[in-house]
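Researcher: Let's do a round of design. I'm pasting the structure tokens now; please hold your answer until I've finished.
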């Protein structure tokens, strides 16, 4: 499958044609054929909003997982907060993407997840009902954490790995043929993870996608500097940057 919006739309169409109902982590039991679409926002919220718009145009809902400890984005900046609220407005759920690497071995990770969920709730102005793990350790994968007494669903819980067929485009690589899995009719419960970062109008290689992200961030950073450093172009001109 190509990493383009066109190919992603075709994937959604195939799910629709095969009779799958687009669900979240809380309502899938109500349907005979369910698919939970999950997106992890590791680096770029803007890309997530573009995918969310495509889904909304097709009447599809999914769950977007957001880091609150990322070096790549600050969820409380005006622009990012507005984009995260936009995800909700488009009909999607926003959950917590949890990076355990931020904590040492002594930390109570369940408590940390609950605290991060409160921060995200403050940001989006809504309750958080689900958590996914960012680069989980083997211990976390096997832990089957009970978060907020079970009120917050752990998308890495056994229910969503053992009782669902799980497919993912992690590291920009579908390890299995996702189309064949959907077409097979063998799986009543599907759990699909994508990373909106890799998708674009025209397909990019991983190298091209990463390079253009770094370059666009340099330009954005210069724009922020203009808001903070008077007469910036007398000190450093935009044309001096490698854009
Ligand atoms: Zn992640």
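Researcher: That's everything. Go ahead.
Model: Designed sequence:
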């Amino acid at each position: 499958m190509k990493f383009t919006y066109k190919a992603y739309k075709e994937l959604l169409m195939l799910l629709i044609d095969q009779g799958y109902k687009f669900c979240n982590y809380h309502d899938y039991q109500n349907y005979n054929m369910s698919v939970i679409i999950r997106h992890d926002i590791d680096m770029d919220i803007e890309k997530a909003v573009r995918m969310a718009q495509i889904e909304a145009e097709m009447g599809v809902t999914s769950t977007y997982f957001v880091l609150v400890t990322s070096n790549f984005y600050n969820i409380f900046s005006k622009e990012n907060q507005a984009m995260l609220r936009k995800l909700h407005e488009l009909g999607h759920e926003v959950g917590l993407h949890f990076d355990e690497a931020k904590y040492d071995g002594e930390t109570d990770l369940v408590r940390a997840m609950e605290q991060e969920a409160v921060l995200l709730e403050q940001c989006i102005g809504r309750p958080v009902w689900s958590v996914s793990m960012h680069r989980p350790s083997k211990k976390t994968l096997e832990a089957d954490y009970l978060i907020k007494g079970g009120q917050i669903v752990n998308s890495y819980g056994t229910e969503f790995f053992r009782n669902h067929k799980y497919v993912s485009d992690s590291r920009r690589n579908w390890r299995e043929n996702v189309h064949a899995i959907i077409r097979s009719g063998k799986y009543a419960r599907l759990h699909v993870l994508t990373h909106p970062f890799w998708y674009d109008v025209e397909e990019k290689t991983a190298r091209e996608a990463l390079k253009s992200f770094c370059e666009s961030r340099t330009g954005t950073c210069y724009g922020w500097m203009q808001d903070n450093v008077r007469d910036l172009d007398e000190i450093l001109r935009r044309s001096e940057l490698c854009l």
